[in-house]
Design brief:
Layout (H helix, E strand, L loop, with lengths): L5 H18 L8 E7 L4 E3 L3 E9 L5 E8 L2 E6 L3 E8 L4 E11 L4 E11 L5 E12 L6 E7 L2 E6 L6 E5 L6 E6 L6 E7 L2 E6 L4 E6 L5 E6 L8 E3 L4 E4 L4 E5 L6 E6 L10 E7 L2 E6 L4 E5 L6 E6 L17 E7 L4 E6 L4 E9 L2
Parallel strand pairs: 2-8, 9-25
Antiparallel strand pairs: 1-3, 3-6, 4-5, 4-7, 7-8, 9-28, 10-11, 11-12, 12-13, 14-15, 15-16, 16-17, 18-19, 19-20, 20-21, 22-23, 23-24, 24-25, 26-27, 27-28
């Protein structure tokens, strides 16, 4: 009876496999960088200077270069595995990121990101209000956008099936012109620029452009944000909010993104930015689900002031009313009148701001 050759074949195959594997070149491993920001803090102040230390480990091969970026701008490039970049001024509010890309001579690279929180160096001024006048407001309007233009209020409304744009007589609260959106759209913020009305939608990622005179639909546009909330303009470009702490500038012709800023006060970023109004080179914004309006520096995103409008509607409601949150800021540039209202509110108010003592 012949002896089995299987054990010998198995051993031979394992030996050949071992030799084959041992002859293969070692796979190049990615470098690993560690980023440390000094001083170490929970929050940093706008304008503060920091130092960034980068330490990189290389398992095999050699480093070709290590690049450090801030605001997508190159701060330093070095071959040293341990180096520091000093005197970096923090010039963005909110989340600030330092990005390091380490590349080896064989082209293998790896990136690391270190994010820090930057808050405003300005303590917002506190305001309350005085009611100057109040006017009728349709309790059917789920107010999403409000404008005062050439003697009339223009209002953008939401809710599926009742979204639209309306031209309203201030004194009577009656609509003198209107255009409803298709039922599938939930209307959001509006603004008037160059004799056109621009309107956002909630989650359709689509906006509409109307002729101011006859409300004829003349254009539509897409935007990348998942949601559209408030809309205003600075006389040149559109400015929109999306329910976060971000404000985005859009070109009104091709709707490309021109810039985005983060909004923050001296405690942190301010989320739920809703209806917007551009007044005297600043931006006023409703904070959703609150009685607060904040005033924002459009260059930096710093909150300049906070306006508390608590109680303004109290004496004007009855048991049959079902008002929701404050949402709606309009400004008469000729007479410097400031108007506010809210979703399904029975009144619209002209107010004057008073410093809180």
């Amino acid at each position: 009876m012949k002896k089995s050759v299987f054990p010998f074949v198995l051993v031979f195959c394992l030996f050949i496999t071992f030799l084959s594997c041992s002859n293969k070149p070692k796979r190049s491993r990615k470098p690993i960088s560690t980023i440390t920001v000094q001083p170490t803090k929970k929050n940093y102040l706008f304008g503060e200077t920091v130092s960034v230390n980068v330490q990189t480990k290389v398992k095999n091969g050699e480093i070709e270069n290590i690049q450090v970026y801030y605001k997508n701008e190159l701060l330093k490039e070095s071959k040293n595995l341990n180096f520091t970049v000093d005197n970096i001024e923090l010039s963005l509010l909110g989340s600030n990121s330092f990005n390091v890309i380490a590349t080896k001579t064989d082209g293998v690279n790896n990136s690391r990101i270190k994010s820090i929180a930057v808050i405003s160096d300005v303590v917002p001024e506190k305001f309350t209000y005085q009611t100057i006048n109040n006017y009728p407001h349709s309790k059917e309007f789920y107010t999403q956008g409000l404008e005062f233009y050439k003697g009339f209020l223009y209002e953008g409304t939401g809710d599926n099936g009742s979204s639209g744009i309306f031209k309203v007589n201030l004194e009577t609260g009656n609509s003198v012109q209107s255009k409803l959106m298709p039922d599938k759209y939930f209307g959001e913020g509006i603004t008037i620029l160059n004799d056109k009305i621009y309107q956002l939608t909630y989650r359709a990622q689509k906006g509409f452009v109307y002729n101011l005179d006859n409300f004829a639909l003349i254009d539509s546009f897409q935007y990348k944000s998942k949601e559209g909330w408030g809309l205003t303009n600075d006389g040149t470009n559109l400015i929109m909010s999306n329910g976060t702490h971000l404000l985005t500038w859009l070109n009104p012709v091709d709707f490309s993104i021109l810039k985005t800023i983060q909004v923050a006060n001296n405690k942190g970023v301010i989320a739920n930015l809703n209806e917007l109004e551009y007044i005297d080179e600043t931006i006023y914004a409703n904070i959703y689900n609150t009685d607060l309006i904040i005033q924002i520096d459009p260059k930096t995103g710093k909150v300049i002031s906070e306006i508390n409008l608590k109680g303004i509607l109290n004496m004007f409601t009855n048991p049959t009313d079902n008002p929701e949150v404050m949402n709606g800021i309009a400004y008469d540039t000729k007479t410097n009148r400031l108007f506010i209202t809210g979703k399904w509110w029975p009144r619209l108010f002209e107010i004057e701001l008073k410093p809180l003592e």
